[in-house]
Structure to design on (232 residues):
């Protein structure tokens, strides 16, 4: 079953799409404004996003851009009453996969959904990569994915994540991490390791399960799928 996220603020349109797609055994989640739609997308993996442009709080074009920053692969279908050529070109320029103008026929929407979900493929697994659970770090492209969602890291965050993953399952002390990531001449009195661990946790762990970055009290940090003590 394909999970679809519908970001739409017109109740009649929502009702029509939900009835039609449920009959075809799609699971449909609904968000009625831009910010809540983007938050729903970040919390859960979806097979397709159907997105209106004129939304409360955040317009659909900005939502689409934010989705593309986080995930380059989930199909996005814009469904809008804005139907000029310029509107369609603008929508597709946000890297939406398709654009359907309201009013629309449910049969056409269903056909486009089938086409987009057939076309969607997961990115090929890189050869030179570090992996843990659903986390993949491509060492050649310097890219990071978790649950097929792209995660943008700074250069320092990437080096820290690589350091932790290369020693996955083992505990690294703060001094070891400082030497590996920042160099042995770095000021050892700094709390920079703790600060950057928190940065990584917000990007790597906050919206995913299970948590992968664990604090070992009095010893340091470790990356593993499960840990028997409560992580800090």
């Amino acid at each position: 079953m394909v999970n679809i996220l519908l970001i739409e603020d017109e109740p009649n349109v929502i009702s029509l799409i939900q009835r039609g797609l449920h009959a075809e055994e799609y699971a449909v989640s609904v968000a009625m404004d831009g910010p809540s739609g983007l938050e729903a997308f970040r919390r859960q993996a979806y097979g397709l996003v159907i997105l209106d442009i004129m939304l409360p709080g955040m317009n659909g074009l900005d939502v689409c851009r934010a989705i593309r920053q986080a995930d380059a692969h989930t199909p996005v279908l814009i469904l809008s009453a804005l139907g000029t050529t310029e509107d369609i070109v603008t929508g597709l320029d946000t890297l939406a996969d398709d654009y359907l103008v309201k009013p629309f026929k449910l049969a056409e929407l269903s056909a486009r959904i089938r086409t987009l979900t057939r076309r969607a493929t997961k990115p090929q697994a890189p050869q030179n990569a570090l992996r843990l659970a659903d986390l993949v770090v491509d060492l050649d492209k310097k890219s990071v994915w978790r649950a097929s969602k792209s995660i943008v890291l700074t250069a320092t965050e990437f080096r820290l994540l690589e350091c932790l993953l290369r020693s996955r399952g083992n505990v690294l002390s703060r001094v070891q991490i400082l030497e590996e990531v920042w160099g042995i001449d770095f000021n050892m009195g700094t709390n920079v390791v703790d600060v950057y661990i928190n940065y990584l946790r917000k990007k790597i762990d906050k919206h995913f399960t299970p948590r992968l970055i664990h604090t070992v009290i009095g010893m340091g940090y470790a990356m593993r799928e499960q840990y028997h003590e409560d992580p800090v």
